[in-house]
Design a protein that fits this description.
Strand 1, helix 3 and strand 2 form a beta-alpha-beta unit. This protein has 331 residues and is an alpha/beta fold. It starts with a helix and ends in a 6-residue tail after the last helix. The protein contains twelve helices and eleven strands. The chain folds into two domains: 163 residues, Bordetella uptake gene, domain 1 (D-Maltodextrin-Binding Protein, domain 2); 118 residues, D-Maltodextrin-Binding Protein, domain 2. Helices cover 45% and strands 18% of the residues. The radius of gyration is 24 Å and the shape is globular.
């Protein structure tokens, strides 16, 4: 009987050891993650605000994760080309995409998407939000946003606003303004922010609800006059802090703006998502990142993956209503 007990104990120990070894071998890649470079898809051409956020954050992330962060620019299709590339990538944490407002509005603006908005993406983190800035030519008769609002109400259909294209943040901010202020600004779309702002500077178009990153240097150079920001509260950044909000200047409740966040493919392990979330959150608080994006008007607002998922869904629903009210037909 004693001999039998010893054999059973030995068998138990062997079995327990085997189980532990199996447990350690179940997800070896996860235990070592990341063990090779991480690719971050930027669904825009190099040089814009999204590219700046990805590259600046990538430097800090690489130091934190001890792996290279490779930026892969895939512009086109209102960010759909780059976003679709992420949807078709392995769910292993080695491919991410930097999403913007376009991610939330594309389901309402496009008749068909090559991916499932609800099933193909795992939220990682919101990085921050940035106001649009209402700008006019330096020679414009409108010295304040109150001046512009009064003129827009008094001249329905006679004032125009530019955007860098249909469905962009500048376009939707203008349509939201029309809806909430009871005005009828005429939308003039351009192929990019550069030509749109050139015509605002020249006075061919009256106003633009432009991204902060696009107009900062032009305002500093005296070519544009900034009238207001589109976020609910004033911007804490030095460059924009003195500007009033649209909401406090005659359109209560008005809120529009740009944002940046990271998605991974659906099915990416939760532990990997959490590790990426922690790394991006830490990197966004680095002095290098903060100093680099302050001029872009970006307000850092990081949180959990779940919070980012809820934020994007709320944005999708909010802008869907604006698009419907403005009778913007899906392409």
């Amino acid at each position: 009987m004693v001999y039998q007990f010893r054999v059973t104990a030995q068998n138990f120990i062997c079995a327990l050891t085997s189980l532990l070894l199996c447990a350690l071998a179940i997800e070896p890649a996860l235990a070592q993650y990341p063990d090779h470079p991480i690719k971050v898809i930027v669904p825009f051409a190099p040089g814009g605000g999204t590219d700046l956020v990805a590259r600046t954050l990538g430097v800090a992330m690489a130091e934190d994760l001890r792996q290279a962060i490779v930026i892969d620019n895939k512009p086109g299709g209102s960010t759909i080309i780059g976003t679709d590339a992420l949807a078709k990538s392995p769910a292993d944490g080695y491919t991410l995409v930097v999403a913007t407002l376009a991610h939330a509005v594309n389901p309402s603006l496009k008749a068909k998407l090559p991916y499932s908005q609800d099933k193909d993406f795992a939220p990682v983190i919101l990085v921050g939000v940035s106001p649009n800035v209402v700008v006019v030519s330096a020679d414009s008769p409108y010295k304040t946003f109150v001046d512009f609002l009064a003129a827009a109400k008094a001249n329905p259909g006679k004032l125009s606003y530019a955007s860098q294209g249909g469905g962009t943040s500048a376009h939707l901010a203008g349509e939201l303004f029309n809806s909430m202020a009871g005005t009828k600004l005429t939308h003039i779309p351009y192929k990019g922010a550069g030509p749109a702002l050139t015509d605002v500077i020249g006075g061919q178009v009256d106003v633009m609800f432009a991204t902060a990153s696009a107009v900062g240097s032009l305002v500093d150079a005296g070519k544009l006059r900034a009238l207001a920001v589109t976020t609910p509260t004033r911007s804490p950044t030095a460059q924009l802090s003195k500007l009033p909000t649209v909401a406090e200047s005659g359109v209560p409740g008005y809120s529009a703006g740009s944002w940046y966040g990271y998605f991974a493919p659906a099915g990416t392990p939760t532990d990997v998502i959490n590790k990426l979330n922690a790394s991006i959150k830490k990197s966004a608080q680095s002095s290098a990142f903060k100093s680099r994006v302050e001029g872009e008007g970006l307000v850092i607002k990081t949180g959990t993956p779940e919070e980012f998922g809820k934020f994007v869904k709320a944005e999708e629903l909010r802008w869907r209503a604006v698009i419907k009210n403005a009778n913007i037909a899906p392409e």
